[in-house]
Amino acid sequence: MTDIALYLIAAVFVLSACYLRRVRWEGLAAATRYGSLAAAALGAKLSLLDPLTIESAARLRLVLLPVLLGAGLYVCAACAFRLLALALYAAKPPRCAVRRELVLAGGALLTSLAHELLARPRLVNGDLVTSPSHRWYLVGYDAIITLYLGYCLAALVRPLARRARLAGPGLLRTATRLFTLGSLAGLA
Q1: pLDDT, tens digit, for every residue of 97-116?
Q2: In the prediction, which pLDDT does 103 show?
């Protein structure tokens, strides 16, 4: 996919979430707020981890900045998916459950960022690489991110499938089923 297309997709994600925020953030249901937060984080992540952005940062000797910010946004989106799952079970999720998920997300974020910093990636011919002696830090980073995202998506599949069954025929049922299938594909 071209860089321009990725930036346009990212702009759609971010602008739609910003629109919801501007319209009536407090009046929105918790599920809508968490969904729009996930969309904004994924859209910003797309633009930050685009090869053009990383190459531009490398010219300024800041190659690690978009990588670290992208990892943070990835964990933020995963956490928003987990909070969305909680909001689909109860209209107003319990504060203790939300706090627990935020602490877990913070732990995943801090340990993944530590592994990313220890891996010391650099840009070579447009690819981020690390030295062979630091590759295990990169493996640890990937494992933490993958396991945390899997945890969040696994929690999201069941309430989405339930909502799809309860929705009447029409656009809402189709969209919920597509979201469920997307979550299952993300798990795979």
Answers
A1: 889 988 999 999 899 888 88
A2: 92
Structure tokens at 155: 């929690």
The whole-number pLDDT of residue 184 equals 77
| Full-model pTM | 0.78
DSSP per residue, the chain: --HHHHHHHHHHHHHHHHHHHHHHTTTS-HHHHHHHHHHHHHHHHHHHTSHHHHHHHHHTT-THHHHHHHHHHHHHHHHHHHHHHHHHHSSS--HHHHHHHHHHHHHHHHHHHHHHHHH--EEETTEEE--GGGHHHHHHHHHHHHHHHHHHHHHHHHHHHHHHHHSPTTHHHHHHHHHHHHHHHHH-
